[in-house]
Amino acid sequence: MKKLSVLEMNRMTEAEFKASEKIPLVVLLDNVRSQHNVGSVFRTADAFRVEKIVLCGICCCPPHPEIHKTALGAENTVAWEYESDTIAAVQKLKDQGYIIYAVEQAHDSVSLEQLQLKKDEKYAIVLGHEVKGVQQEVVDLCHHCVEIPQFGTKHSLNVSVASGIVQWAFFDQLYFRLSK
């Protein structure tokens, strides 16, 4: 088996990406402090054609060299906005008809493999601070919590890793399964 060259991958241009259809998913970061984590979330959002990213609180915003280091230009393709108050950002998305999932371990959370999305709905996922997670007041505003099943000795994942896993799960359903 031979690896594909960059040219063989037929990647979109920035203009083609911006004009392409996106999945109905917004990724909201609640006080994520690491610029590398923010950049990684951008890069994953580009891979799965996420509608946009909302950066809240202490999140660093593009342009920033530390974001670019992991985003590799995805900060220029994925739509994003900044909102100082996460609660206001979540409420705004709710008012726009999004179903909001906090990515958090909580009572009555849905395990990711049990998640069942609907074709004609819009979704947002909220990921939290590297140590504190999603603020409880924000969890209280969300419609649901979704958690990633884990079977080892640790009970948490890096926020950018968790974001990638959850973005993939939403993409899998919204793009592959429900778009048919």
Provide the fold topology.
Blueprint: H1 14-19, E1 23-30, H2 35-47, E2 50-56, H3 65-71, E3 80-83, H4 86-95, E4 98-103, E5 110-111, E6 122-128, H5 136-141, E7 144-147, H6 159-177
Parallel strand pairs: 1-2, 1-6, 2-3, 4-6, 4-7, 5-7
List keywords for this structure.
180 residues; alpha/beta; Alpha/beta knot; 21% strand
User: How many structural domains can be distinguished in the coordinates?
Assistant: 1
Span of the ends, CA to CA: 30 Å
Largest sheet: 7 strands, parallel
Which CATH class is shown? Alpha Beta
CATH topology: Alpha/beta knot
Poorly predicted regions are none
* Strand elements, count: 7
Instruction: Report the helical percentage.
Output: 25-40%
Briefly summarize what is shown:
The protein has 180 residues and is α/β, with parallel strands linked by helices. The chain has helices spanning 14-19, 35-47, 65-71, 86-95, 136-141, 159-177, and strands at 23-30, 50-56, 80-83, 98-103, 110-111, 122-128, 144-147. The protein is 34% helix and 21% strand.
Detailed description of the structure:
The protein is an alpha/beta fold and 180 residues long. The protein has one domain: 3-Layer(aba) Sandwich (Alpha/beta knot), CATH 3.40.1280. It contains 6 helices and 7 strands. The chain has helices at 14-19, 35-47, 65-71, 86-95, 136-141, 159-177, and strands at residues 23-30, 50-56, 80-83, 98-103, 110-111, 122-128, 144-147. A 7-stranded parallel beta sheet has the order 3-2-1-6-4-7-5, sandwiched between helices. Helix 2 links the parallel strand 1 (23-30) and strand 2. Helix 2 packs parallel to helix 3 (65-71). The chain is globular, with a radius of gyration of 16 Å. It starts with 13 loop residues before the first helix and ends with a helix.
